[in-house]
Automatic annotation (TrEMBL):
It comes from Thiosulfativibrio zosterae. The gene is yggS. One of its GO terms (molecular function) is pyridoxal phosphate binding. The modification N6-(pyridoxal phosphate)lysine is found at residue 34. The keyword ATP-binding does not apply. This is Pyridoxal phosphate homeostasis protein. PANTHER family: PROLINE SYNTHETASE CO-TRANSCRIBED BACTERIAL HOMOLOG PROTEIN (PTHR10146), PYRIDOXAL PHOSPHATE HOMEOSTASIS PROTEIN (PTHR10146:SF14). Its cofactor is pyridoxal 5'-phosphate.
C-alpha cells in the first residue's frame, strides 16, 4: 500500500513540476488501473484521485459496480459489440477511432445519463499498426460527430510512436496541439478543450506541448498484470 501511495505522490510531483517548468495550467491526471485489482484503485482513490482509466470492458464493469462514485474513462480499443456497455457505464471515452463507433455510442447512450464525453483518437505518427483518424480526417468528421445528440466531443487523444529522446517525444505532441487549435478555430461553437496525451515515459514532453490530461498507469500501479476482457 505504501508503495502505491509513494508512486502516486511521485507522479503528482512530476505533473506539478512540469506545469511550473513549462508555465502550463493544471493538467488532469487519469490513473490507468487496467489489470489492477479494485483494492489498488481504492488505495489511490483514498488519496483524492477521482478519475480512472480502463482498457477492458468486462474487468472495468466489475470495478465500476464496486466504485460507481468514481469517474471512469474508457481508453482501450473499441469493438463494435462492446459499445453498448461502454455507452451505458462510462463518463468518458478516449478511443473513438472511427465514425461507426461514435454512432453506436450515440445510439446506445441512455439519455438519462447525459451526454457521453468523447475524444477522437488520432494516429498522429501514422503507424500502420495503430488505429485512429488520420490528422487530415479529424476536422472533416467533426461536423457529423457534433450532430450526434448524445455525445459531446471534447477534443483529441493520441498514443504517438515511442521515442526516448525528449525533443523527439515533443514533436508528435506539438502536432496534436496544432491540430486541436485548427479544430477549435474551425468549430468555435464546440467545447474542444481536451488533449489526452502523455503516459509514464513521456508525460513531461506532453505537458510541454499542451496536454490537458495525461494517462498514467505503470508509474502508479506498476507493470500490468494478465487481463481478462
Amino acid at each position: 500500500m505504501n508503495t502505491l501511495i509513494d508512486n502516486y505522490q511521485t507522479v503528482k510531483q512530476r505533473l506539478q513540476q512540469a506545469q511550473q517548468t513549462y508555465h502550463k495550467p493544471e493538467v488532469q491526471l487519469l490513473a490507468v488501473s487496467k489489470t489492477k485489482p479494485i483494492e489498488a484503485v481504492n488505495v489511490i482513490a483514498a488519496q483524492g484521485q477521482q478519475c480512472f482509466g480502463e482498457n477492458y470492458v468486462q474487468e472495468a464493469l466489475e470495478k465500476i459496480a464496486l466504485r460507481p462514485d468514481l469517474e471512469w474513462h474508457f481508453i482501450g480499443p473499441i469493438q463494435s459489440n462492446k459499445t453498448k456497455p461502454i455507452a451505458e457505464n462510462f463518463a468518458w471515452v478516449h478511443s473513438v477511432d472511427r465514425l461507426k463507433i461514435a454512432q453506436r455510442l450515440n445510439d446506445q447512450r441512455p439519455v438519462e445519463l447525459g451526454k457521453l464525453h468523447i475524444l477522437l483518437e488520432v494516429n498522429i505518427s501514422q503507424e500502420a499498426s495503430k488505429a485512429g483518424f488520420s490528422p487530415e480526417e479529424v476536422c472533416s468528421v467533426l461536423p457529423e460527430i457534433m450532430a450526434m445528440k448524445n455525445l459531446e466531443c471534447r477534443g483529441l487523444m493520441a498514443i504517438p510512436e515511442i521515442a526516448t529522446d525528449f525533443e523527439q517525444q515533443r514533436q508528435p505532441f506539438a502536432k496534436m496541439r496544432e491540430l486541436l487549435a485548427r479544430c477549435q478555430a474551425a468549430f468555435p461553437e464546440a467545447k474542444l478543450d481536451t488533449l489526452s496525451m502523455g503516459m509514464s515515459g513521456d508525460l513531461e514532453a506532453a505537458i510541454a506541448e499542451g496536454a490537458t490530461l495525461v494517462r498514467i498507469g505503470t508509474d502508479i500501479f506498476g507493470a500490468r498484470n494478465y487481463h481478462k476482457n
